[in-house]
Amino acid sequence: MSRSRIGEVLNASTTEFVAACDDLHRPPPFGALVSASDGERDVLGLVYHASTGSADPGRPAIVRGRGMESEEDVYHQHPQLAMLLQTEIKALVVGFDEDGVVRQHLPPRPAAIHAFLYRASDDLMQRFYQRLDFLSILIGTPVAAPVDELIAAGLRAARSSVGPAQERELTIRAGRQLVVLMNGDPARLGAVLRRLRA
Amino acid sequence: MNSDVRRLGTVIGGSLKEGVEVKLDPGVETEDIAVGTYVVVEGTSKRFFCLVADVRLAALDQKALVNPPAFEDDLLAEIWSGAGIYGVLEVAPLLTLDKLAGALDGPQPVKSVPSHFAVANQASDEDVEAVFGRDGGSFFEIGTPIEMETRVCLDLAKLVERSVGVFGKSGTGKTFLTRLVLAGLVQREVAANLVFDMHNEYGWEGTGEAGPPPQGLKKLFGPKVSIFSLDPNSTRRRGATSDFDLQIGYDQIEPEDIALLAETLGLKGPMIEAVYLLDRQFGNQWLAKLLDADTEERRQALTSALGAHAASIGALWRKLSKLARFPFLTRSKPTDYLMAILDRLRSGTSVVVEFGDFRALEAYILVANVLTRRIHHKYVEDVEKAMGVGGTKPRPLIITIEEAHKFLHPTVAGQTIFGEIAREMRKYNVTLLVVDQRPSGIDDEVLSQIGTRLCCLLDNEKDVDAVLSGASGRNELRAVLARLETKQQALVFGHAVPMPIVIKTRTYDDDFYRAVRTFQDLGALTRAERVKFRDAQVDYLHS
Q1: Is the pTM of this model over 0.80?
Q2: Which residue of A has its CA nearest to B85?
Q3: What is the ipTM of this complex?
Q4: Quick one: which H or E segment has residue B453?
């Protein structure tokens, strides 16, 4: 299956990676499953942060649209902006895909810099969400990320990929795992479970 | 086979002594599992047959219970159940079946527990059949396990090897259960029965609460059963015929028979002593002599002849005159009923002794004791003779008595023939079937000799303790026993069943009559069938 790239890795560690998106202002949605190769395997991550700003820290974005009719005019009159600005995402590593087998633990190596970033195909989504071990990676992650929101968003995205028949089953399976993982924090658990339903 | 196995959960702890804990899988409702049902735990090399003794609710975290999650919809409820909150079954392992050899060797007593996370399934019909056998041979169907369709059988051959107890408070179906067991014994010709039928329930027709009266043994089995009546008028009134009108001569009553009645008649110590004095003086004419002393002068003469207390003789005369009012007691020497009864019992015909309208306890105790003592005597002779010449032992005899605590009370059990039978008569092929609502009134030593117990609901603590004394897994059984339904349910355990089981008693109706009348013995589970069963289990294991 041919994959179309959506960006490129700029920074990578064992637990997360940062990638620039090819389309300005069009990052993959929060909670989306993305992949980037480390040379041997595809490292999988869940998008937990997206930002757009100047690609060059020395040239921050400045006001350009004063006196203009519409926002589109800003980019129309300053075509270089598309090159100067950059949309970046951060993804938490939740596993890897090696030889067609998805494993939900941290990969031996981080993704390579300049590796292409891909959005997970429906097939990969389905294979990935068959297991829910990644939930414990998320809950235990050292990265400062909105983990609870991410879990809820990720599972909502997963639900739409598995189809209506398995939607409920997936939610219940994930919910039960969360009950065990978040044991001892009923308030937090309640908040996540309620978000699962939306 | 095994297609309908329903998984319940996994083993999470426990001990052989305390029972094993099974955590229910998500989606298995505690409400669906009744105490007393069967669970099969699949161990690595053994299958454990267990009885559900308790169902408990548990939570992963107590905090969640203090602040219960709001179940805004059934999705949240479903997520919680089985993960944060779950049900736990406490099951008592009772038997094991070796997965490879077991179906051939039959179930073995349990000596260990399954390991952690062994899977527990609801017992299937095949499992129950493998344990309890199939109707046929000496296996007689007595009911179905609760919430199952399969049949539970008593091994009647084993049943008669030891004494049997049918217990339960009044109105719980003791009589029906007893009638059922007796019908089985008569039909399978496992033993001859001698039934002391206080309330005329077993001979011709019983009394049901609704519908036509349940058929008695004579009605069901005709020539295989004889009715001996103490009250021929009552027997005829109920549309039955007795084979023999039973009379007991004064000369057949011995001092021991009167001693047994001490409590019922209110006889004091000196009066009993006077009875023995009379017996020493007059031999078997003692009762006739005493009852003849119907004037003060005659009693005075008797007193001086015996050297007894005048007051004791007077009181004794008054008390025993009550007995003389029973028409079946006669001064003249009656026909020898004993040989008639013995002939029938020896040929395998069951005998029901009907008391008609004479339901007074003293009549029952007296007659049962007099008859049993003499029959027992003959049986002992028969057996000793058989042992001496190497002949065949007489057919097993099982004697049914109601209100058994009156015969087997600790104060009298040592003296009565029933106490003796319960304690040692297994050697002589005679055992008791005691029917009682106050098992706590029965002597401990006697109770401990009761091999098979069929218990309907009991709610008195002392009675429950008494019934369960000596049973393994007593605590679990106690929970089960206390939750029996008031009708048609019984906990059966002991010698004639491989493990305790709660049954819904087989209904005693037209279907039953037809079944016992047209019964064709297909034999118990054959070896080939056991092999087949084992193979199916092995297949299941490897599938």
Answers
A1: no
A2: A179
A3: 0.70
A4: strand B450-455
